[in-house]
Design brief:
CATH class of the largest domain: Alpha Beta
Number of strands: 13
Largest sheet: 7 strands, mixed
Strand content: 25-35%
Distance between the termini: 54 Å
Structural class: alpha+beta
CATH superfamily of the largest domain: Glutaredoxin
CATH topology of the largest domain: Glutaredoxin
Oligomer: single chain
Helix content: 10-25%
Strand order of the largest sheet: 8-7-11-10-9-12-13
Number of domains: 2
Number of helices: 5
Order of helices and strands: HEEEEEEEEEHEHEHEEH
């Protein structure tokens, strides 16, 4: 992907600030032929590619020509960051608002990068299945994907061990500012809802592993299990597009909510009350 290094450097020039993922995301996809044509008759230029990722909309320029997105890693193109993207058509500016969590597609032709489509994050359905063979976790619906990881204390914890509980599965990293902000909120929620069958579980994405995660967990007095990701779980859940990402799994193992970005105490109370009622 050396041909895209200049684009990455260009993106860095407009970098604001951001918190994103540290591992892989969606793969590079060559441009598809336009509707009604074939690859042989209406092939896109050789230097045209499509990329896609998840993001949070930070702002829309007054003219509606650009959207500033806080996005995760876009494999083969650029690192996680907050930056403006040009919109391919004016009506795209009317489809999103600041604060929205979205899945977005960009088209790259030479040095021109444009957003060509937005989809609400929770409504996004991938065209191919994820590592587990199901698309449920990516669109915030369906059955939770089984996992088993090692905790900081050396024990293992699996989703099966939590059968019958409401599970809040949080993907985070020590370098992520919003993660630091929401952990105290999760501690409060675990204390308040633990007796009602709610179990928070943190999955740390730091490549350095226990040596960096354990001191951080002690500093913030994390009051629930902290697991060390092996790369497979975050990939299966797509928990590495935007960090933090949190899944709320009901007692039957069905994913009921996906939160992209930090979650507050007040946001989670209604759904936790609903899932623990009765």
């Amino acid at each position: 992907m050396n041909s895209y290094r200049s684009l990455t450097l260009l993106a860095a020039l407009v970098l604001f600030a951001g918190c994103g993922a540290s591992t892989e995301t969606d793969s590079l996809r060559p441009s598809e032929p336009s509707e009604g044509g074939s690859a042989s008759t209406q092939a896109a230029p050789a230097d045209t590619f499509h990329f896609d990722a998840f993001a949070r909309v930070r702002s829309i320029t007054p003219s509606g020509s650009h959207a500033v997105l806080e996005h995760g890693n876009i494999e083969g193109f650029m690192d996680a960051m907050t930056m403006p993207f040009e919109l391919d058509r004016p009506e795209l500016a009317e489809e999103v608002s600041p604060g929205d969590s979205v899945h977005f597609d960009i088209r790259v032709v030479g040095n021109v990068v444009k957003i060509i489509d937005f989809t609400p994050a929770d409504a996004y359905e991938p065209t191919t299945s994820d590592a587990s063979g199901t698309g449920g976790a990516r669109k915030g619906l369906g059955q939770a994907i089984p996992f088993e990881l090692t905790a900081l204390d050396g024990t293992t914890l699996s989703l099966g061990d939590l059968a019958g509980k409401v599970v809040v599965l949080n993907f985070w990293a020590t370098w992520c500012g919003p993660c630091r902000e929401e952990i105290p909120e999760f501690n409060r929620l675990q204390a308040e809802y633990g007796a009602r069958g709610v179990q928070f579980v943190g999955v740390a994405l730091d490549e350095e592993g226990q040596s960096i995660v354990e001191p951080f967990a002690e500093e913030l007095s994390i009051a629930y299990p902290t697991l060390l990701d092996d790369g497979k779980v975050s990939e299966a859940y797509k928990g590495h597009y935007v960090v933090p990402t949190t899944y709320l799994i009901d007692r039957e193992g069905v994913i009921r909510r996906r939160y992209i970005g930090a979650v507050t105490f007040e946001t989670m109370i209604p759904i936790l009350d609903e899932l623990t009622a009765g």
